[in-house]
Amino acid sequence: MTTTNTQTSATNPATGEILSSRPYASQADIEQAISQAASASKIWADTPLAQRAAAIIRLASVLENQAQTLAQTITREMGKPIRQARAEVAKCINLCHWYAEHGPLMLANQPTQVPGQQAEIAFRPLGVILAVMPWNFPLWQVLRGAVPMLLTGNTYLLKHAPNVPASAGLLVQAFLDADFPIGAFAEINASNEGVSSLIADPRVAAVALTGSARAGEAIGSQAGKALKKCVLELGGSDPFIVLNSADLDDAVNAGVAGRFQNTGQVCAAAKRFIVEEGIADAFIEKFVAATSKLVVGNPKDEQTDIGPMARFDLRDELHRQVAETIQQGATCILGGEKLPGEGNFYAPTILTGVTPAMTAFQEEMFGPVAAITIARDAEHALELANLSQYGLSATIYGEERLALQLAEKLECGGVFINGYSASDPRVPFGGVKRSGFGRELSHFGLYEFCNIQTVWKNRH
User: Catalytic positions, please?
Assistant: First the structure.
């Protein structure tokens, strides 16, 4: 993939105002960034684990002190409603505290199960980790990987999405304010070619990506060619199964929250609603009523539930998907249109009569659109849920025993029973199929970018 532009720009999606622009990093900039990160990695890896954990606690304090500025920047750059932006910052602070408290024990040397031998497992840093991150959670997506990587003793080189440069800059400053070594956490505005050169550089040890399946193909193939570890968290088209035994009001409330949070721009979120036919009419009626009450508007307003989509080109793509699905035979019972004005707003949309052959079922819908498909029974719902190229997460609302039976056969990285998709530092997060591979968060995410070293003593 070749980059044709010479610079990137950030636009306020609520107004269309150009906020800033900056050139792509030159080869000299890339060399400086790698050199600093590589030098810092030697210092940081030799820093005692307790001191690294203390630095993570300092980072949490910096984020807390800057919470309002961080939230306002997220809202301005990518349109997240301000209440949700504040919640993102708070989630990052909690992440720091959790890893600082629990991470050192996870990274302690572990005895092995080899009888009669003195052997243990140690967790060593790999070095410089390149992270290519998206715009939809400008802080959380970065920190949920960076915090455990840095705690392990790695350094973190961020290539952030080009439309959130101020958020990226505030993150870099937060790490400096928390007294991390210069280069331990750094950001580079690299082009596609620049990213390729970073992956190929022998001083970069591994790569993490959160993004589209297409980006995963490119990054994964380049990392493979360079024989480097990578973790890919890619797209999702998560099923939200509603069984006849579901508590209808709970399912509706969770469905609305799960689909329309962050203006529907979430990888692991309800996208394909698969509803058992016995409850379908009642669910749809209540779902439409609840969705109709969502407040669309200025993301700076406290009452706003749905803000603008982050990028104008993505709104065009979403509208294409909606129009195609309608042409294929689905019915639009709510929304289905770009909202007028300078901002990048799209009406909350509900499509019914969606079948597996339709665009809204086959492709990821990254915006405020819900697609509803009717299932004959629970087994049919399971079949429809798995009939996707993606496998990030899934939700089931219904009687718990049956839901657990279905969960065993769902092809995805996470299943939420009577609760909608979320991420939490205490449990692993990631997908299967074209949703990627590897895990973030918990001890699984902590170990992804470690050299898991076996140390034998006096082996006979």
Answer: 233, 267
